[in-house]
């Protein structure tokens, strides 16, 4: 009986201390743990659960609202990742010489938004191609780096001569080159003269490239490999669309139009070392260059009179 009385007194004293703590505005943390009421802790757990549920419900509402707008959190994450990727790519581009990926004029056009709009201009379009290149590649199938070195030499000489004569390199196409003349120029005869001067000079440079290839084959003990390659060219003048051609994954400053196609057809009809120009071009330069008249049947154009440029006239 005495033990039961002591236990009852102890419990009573514990409740008295709890009530005293509440009266004195003290928190339950100041009361010994064994005398704390367990209900507040359960209440806190319930409040935390309710708070978590409210946050989850709000998140579901936000997602639902964004889906109604056509977006979602996943889209936001992808967009943020895209922005980070874009920044990383931009910082990476700063470490390389991006200008080397474009003709200097094309590069400046890319930096000027007003130059992006497709517009009509009268330009001289030029195509070059290496005659006999496919046969050479087949014979040197086991020596691809010899072909690579040949193209590097050709393109290096071409870019120097083209830029020197006020030309703009549109692109390298396999073993071919596309360029144009007359951008932001008004003198049509000068555009044509610049283009033909380039073609004549590059024809002479190509002879040096041929000699370098012969030396390389001898060095590699491949002097039994006979080859016959030459540079052929087609030149035409006419109205074209110039500006930024955009697709989903790639943009490019280039030329578009039937006159571009016709210049390419002329290059296709040229034979070894020939520089074939259209009648429109010849009318502008006939006093400056010696030429030979030829008639070709050009696909989708029929029989067309074209001209093979032989050289500059003696008084030039």
Helices and strands, with pairings:
Blueprint: H1 2-23, H2 39-69, H3 73-93, H4 104-111, E1 119-131, H5 133-139, H6 144-164, E2 167-173, E3 176-181, H7 188-219, E4 230-246, E5 251-256, H8 258-269, E6 275-277, H9 279-285, E7 289-298, E8 302-312
Parallel strand pairs: 4-6
Antiparallel strand pairs: 1-3, 1-4, 2-3, 4-5, 6-8, 7-8
Entry summary:
This protein has 316 residues and is α+β, with helices and mostly antiparallel strands. It has nine helices and eight strands. The N terminus is likely disordered.
The CATH architecture name of the domain at 103-312 reads 2-Layer Sandwich
Cα radius of gyration in angstroms: 40 Å
Structural class: alpha+beta
Shape: globular
Q: State the distance separating the first and last CA atoms.
A: 136 Å
For the record, what CATH class of the domain at 103-312 applies? Alpha Beta
Q: Provide the helix percentage.
A: 40-55%
Strand content: 15-25%
Give the overall pLDDT as a whole number: 79
Instruction: Describe the sheet with the most strands.
Output: 8 strands, mixed
CATH superfamily of the domain at 103-312: Nucleotide cyclase, GGDEF domain
Compute the number of strand runs.
Answer: 8
- What is the CATH fold-level name of the domain at 103-312? Alpha-Beta Plaits
Number of helices: 9
Q: Strand-and-helix sequence, N→C?
A: HHHHEHHEEHEEHEHEE
Spans where pLDDT lies below 50 across 5 or more residues: 1-8, 14-43, 60-88
């Amino acid at each position: 009986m005495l033990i039961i009385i002591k236990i009852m007194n102890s419990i009573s004293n514990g409740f008295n201390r709890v009530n005293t703590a509440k009266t004195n505005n003290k928190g339950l943390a100041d009361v010994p743990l064994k005398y704390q009421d367990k209900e507040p802790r359960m209440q806190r757990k319930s409040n935390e659960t309710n708070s978590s549920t409210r946050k989850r419900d709000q998140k579901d509402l936000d997602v639902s609202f964004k889906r109604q707008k056509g977006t979602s959190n996943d889209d936001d994450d992808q967009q943020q990742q895209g922005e980070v990727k874009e920044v990383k790519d931009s910082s990476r581009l700063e470490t390389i010489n991006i200008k080397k990926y474009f003709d200097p004029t094309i590069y400046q056009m890319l930096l000027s938004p007003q130059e992006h709009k497709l517009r009509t201009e009268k330009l001289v379009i030029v195509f070059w191609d290496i005659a006999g290149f496919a046969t050479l590649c087949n014979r040197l199938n086991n020596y691809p780096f010899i072909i690579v070195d040949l193209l590097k030499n050709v393109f290096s000489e071409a870019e120097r001569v083209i830029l020197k004569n006020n030309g703009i390199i549109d692109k390298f196409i396999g073993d071919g080159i596309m360029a144009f003349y007359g951008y932001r120029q008004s003198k049509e005869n000068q555009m044509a003269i610049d283009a033909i001067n380039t073609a004549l000079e590059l024809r002479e440079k190509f002879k040096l490239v041929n000699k370098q290839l012969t030396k390389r084959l001898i060095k590699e003990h491949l002097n039994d490999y006979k080859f016959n390659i030459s540079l052929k060219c087609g030149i035409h003048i006419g109205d074209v669309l110039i500006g930024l051609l955009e697709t989903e994954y790639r943009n490019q400053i280039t030329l578009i139009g039937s006159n571009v196609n016709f210049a390419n057809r002329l290059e296709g009809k040229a034979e070894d070392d020939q520089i074939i120009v259209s009648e429109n071009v010849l009318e502008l330069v006939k006093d400056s260059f010696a030429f030979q008249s030829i008639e070709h049947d050009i696909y989708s154009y029929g029989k067309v009179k074209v001209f093979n440029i032989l050289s500059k006239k003696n008084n030039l």
